[in-house]
Structures are given as structure tokens and as C-alpha cells.
């Protein structure tokens, strides 16, 4: 099952659930039974870190210019018209 399919199936049953809540619940469900098995817990932890790093690399956030940068842009645009 793909990630989008899983999230869609959960949202059918729980329409108010956020993506973050769904991911945390799925991870909890996977890790809940491995408390007694250290090796399995370590493998799951390594997998989670790998997947998280992969997601962060895929979805780089768009950096929005700050207030000062937007103000400078507006001022520079306005100065071009007056000269």
C-alpha cells in the first residue's frame, strides 16, 4: 500500500485527522510491540530515520522572503518609476 492510499483510507474513517497524526499513529502501531526485542527496535528506528531524511530531501520548503526583503523589493520597484 502506498503512503497516499494509506492516508486516504485513514481519512475516510477519521476525516479530521491531520497527516502528522496519521503518520505518528502508524509509527506507534509499528513500534508498540517491539519493546522487548532490542534488535527489531533498532532496525525500526534506523528505518524511520532513513525515511524521514528521504522525505525532507524530497520536499524542500520554499523560502519566502522576509519582511525586510519584501520592503526592499517594493522600495526598489518604486524608485525605478520615479527616476
Task: Write a concise keyword list for the protein shown above.
83 residues; mainly alpha; 4 helices; 73% helix; 0% strand; elongated
Describe the structure.
- 73% of the residues lie in helices and 0% in strands.
- The protein has 83 residues and is mainly alpha-helical.
- It has a domain at 1-53.
- It starts with a helix and ends with a helix.
Total of helices = 4
Ends apart, CA distance between termini: 61 Å
Strand runs, count: 0
Into which percentage range does the β-strand content fall? under 5%
Brief digest:
Residues 62-71 have a biased composition (Basic residues). The chain has helices at 3-13, 19-31, 38-58, 67-82. It is built from 4 helices and no strands.
Topology:
Layout: H1 3-13, H2 19-31, H3 38-58, H4 67-82
Amino acid at each position: 500500500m502506498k503512503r497516499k492510499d494509506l492516508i486516504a483510507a485513514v481519512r475516510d474513517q477519521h476525516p479530521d485527522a491531520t497527516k502528522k497524526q496519521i503518520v505518528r499513529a502508524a509509527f506507534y502501531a509499528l513500534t508498540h510491540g517491539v519493546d522487548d526485542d532490542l534488535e527489531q527496535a533498532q532496525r525500526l528506528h534506523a528505518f524511520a530515520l532513513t525515511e524521514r531524511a528521504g522525505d525532507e530531501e524530497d520536499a524542500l520548503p520554499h523560502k519566502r522572503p522576509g519582511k525586510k526583503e519584501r520592503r526592499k523589493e517594493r522600495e526598489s520597484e518604486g524608485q525605478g518609476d520615479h527616476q
